[in-house]
Amino acid sequence: MSKVRGALFGLAFGDALGAPTEFMSYEEILRRYGERGPHELPPRGLVTDDTQMTLAVADALVSALEKPPVTAEHLEPRLRGRFLQWWSSDENDRAPGRTCMNACAAMAGGKPWWEATIAGSKGCGANMRVAPMGLAPGLSDDERAGAAQLQAALTHGHPTGLAASELTALAVRWLLDGLPVAELPVALRARCDSQREVYRGDWLGDHLWRRSLAESPERFIATGWDECRAALAGLEDAVRHVGPDADPCSAAGAGWVAEEALATAVYCLLLFPDSPIDAIARAAASSGDSDSIASLTGGFAGAIHGEHAWPAEWYTRIEYREDLDRLSTAWTA
Ligand SMILES: [Mg+2]
């Protein structure tokens, strides 16, 4: 039973369930799919940029892992190359995020990433694609954190995008390693506290924080951790008081920004800790960034429950199944 396979396919399944609902009104979603959202994979199993960019991050990491240790020097050119491959591909026609498109265009024009990145953007495009940094075996927590932040920084320069990406990658890892779901919010908030003034200069260099108005690297990154901490506060209360029949975005945020996408995905997970399909269906039936929230939720749920979380038949018709299978095999111990 592979948890890595459950997570990689889970994020694609969530993405595919949320793809048709991302730009539907909440009322329209309920009318079409019922109160608890879509429970069936659409016939063609099409995903969006969330899964495409996750595969890009994964490929870059696989290549960097051929010559360990993973460092910024090895990882950055591989991420940049694979992001640009995605950016110019014919398959990049799934309502990609503007931040990613603009940053890639600037990198394609020859700018280094710290000039190409959209400094003020904390869109969820930074953390919707970060799961591979949690799933690959054999990395230390510091390597996962640094790699997660660097892959975010190439396109999203805002400190909250960096912090949320680290939290998302570590959440995948911790769940894979057996952390009980109920303990996840506490663990994430504790990470916000312990990392509050840790600027990962060995991964990010000096350029990024100097572009900001912050007076020090510590002040720069603290903003990101504080915003994540605020978004993750009160999730447990919301589970009790808002509950499974309401729009998850009304409890934890619309998810267009990184910290809310993480919080709302964790919220959907907490609503249905034993029922992964209900969790991604709820995430897809949301008023906000449905595909990204559902993709994050699917990655988390798959990391907990493993490949049997999802119907066997879904595996046969999800888009990019060969790539997802190749990575699952490579990273399943
Ligand atoms: Mg998308």
What does this structure look like?
- With 333 residues, the chain is mainly α.
- The chain has a single domain (3-331), classed as ADP-ribosylation/Crystallin J1 (ADP-ribosylglycohydrolase fold), CATH 1.10.4080.
- Helix content is 63%, strand content 0%.
- The mean pLDDT is 97.
- The protein binds magnesium ion.
- Magnesium ion binds next to α3 and α18.
Distance between the termini: 11 Å
Largest sheet: none
Strand element count = 0
Helices and strands, in N-to-C order? HHHHHHHHHHHHHHHHHHHH
- Give me the number of helical elements: 20
Task: Report the structural category.
Answer: mainly alpha
Which term fits the overall shape? globular
Q: What ligands can be seen in this structure? A: magnesium ion
Keywords:
mainly alpha, single chain, 63% helix, ADP-ribosylglycohydrolase fold, 333 residues, binds magnesium ion, 20 helices
List the helices and strands and how they pair.
Layout: H1 3-18, H2 26-33, H3 49-65, H4 72-87, H5 98-108, H6 113-116, H7 132-135, H8 141-153, H9 159-176, H10 184-194, H11 201-204, H12 207-211, H13 217-232, H14 235-241, H15 248-252, H16 258-271, H17 276-284, H18 290-305, H19 312-315, H20 321-331
Helix pairs in contact: 1-17, 1-18, 1-20, 3-4, 4-5, 4-8, 8-9, 9-10, 9-13, 9-18, 10-13, 13-16, 14-16, 16-17, 16-18, 17-18
Summarize the structure.
The chain is an all-alpha fold. It has helices at 3-18, 26-33, 49-65, 72-87, 98-108, 113-116, 132-135, 141-153, 159-176, 184-194, 201-204, 207-211, 217-232, 235-241, 248-252, 258-271, 276-284, 290-305, 312-315, 321-331. The protein has one domain: ADP-ribosylglycohydrolase fold (Orthogonal Bundle).
